[in-house]
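**User:** Hello, beginner here. Are you able to go through the protein record under this note? It all follows right here:
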Amino acid sequence: MSNYFEIIRSGINTTFQDKGRDNLYHIGIPFSGAMDNRNFLIANKLVNNNLYSAVIEFAYQGPLLKYTGNKINLAITGDVIFSIKKKDTEIEGSCYVSYQIENGDEINIISTNKSVYGYLAIGGQFDIKFQWNSCSINTKANIGSNDGKKLEAGQKIKLKKINLNQDIKKTNYINTKIENIRVIKGTNFEYFSEVGKKIFYNSEFTVSKLSDRMGMRLEGPKIENIVNTNIKSEGLIKGVIQVPADGKPIIMLSDHGTIGGYPKIGVVASVDYDRLVQISTGSKIKFKEIKLSDAETLFKLYEMETQNLLSQI
């Protein structure tokens, strides 16, 4: 029997993602990969996968999938509302629990709950193409599996492997919310007036509906630039905060362009990135300055905490 999922409803921004692709900035290719790395890793651990296996990432509303094939485990992580339909029975799903599904079952990922991204991992491997050692889809550049495009209704996702170990696993992880985003001073911090700097650290900003995997646009008071609103294009990194001429910050996310010509006021500390990307449209955020040494220490602790979570599953 061939094993595959049929996409009945594709959902919003449903893509294949893994850990992303390294060392390609010099040719204009960003890392991409799962937006929320911790939830990505937990999803794979729950179904006995290699931690960096491909998963299905979705935003706001997920896909409706019908499964055909042999028994297989799956797990969903994030703050997600979903159900599993088995013949005439519908089960209300719980995140951070693995489920065994069989021929004819349907998985309906209804929505994320006051967050943005969720993850579906299957106990096995999707039969998908890799580009530069990653399946991660960047829809802006049409890079990755599925010809670099979002998954669509009517598609069939074939599996090339099903894990033999189908033990049911679970963990009691809780997604915590964040409002104060910790940042390090950017390379163009002195381009901004003292009033502009105070606005950046003391004001509240709203996440714009124009945000996506490439960047998070913020609405709020204008941050005044007193030097130049354009600079010679420089390299960008994930989490850097650019301020264009309109004075409204843009945070570069996983599919960001690798160079840019707007002054950079700050960089989001890596420890806060997973929770930053889960802040939904219309939510409020504030920035808080920390030193580079503190950001490094906090990230090391976050990584240790993640490994402890995984070891307990």
The helical segments are 37-46, 194-202, 273-276, 292-311.
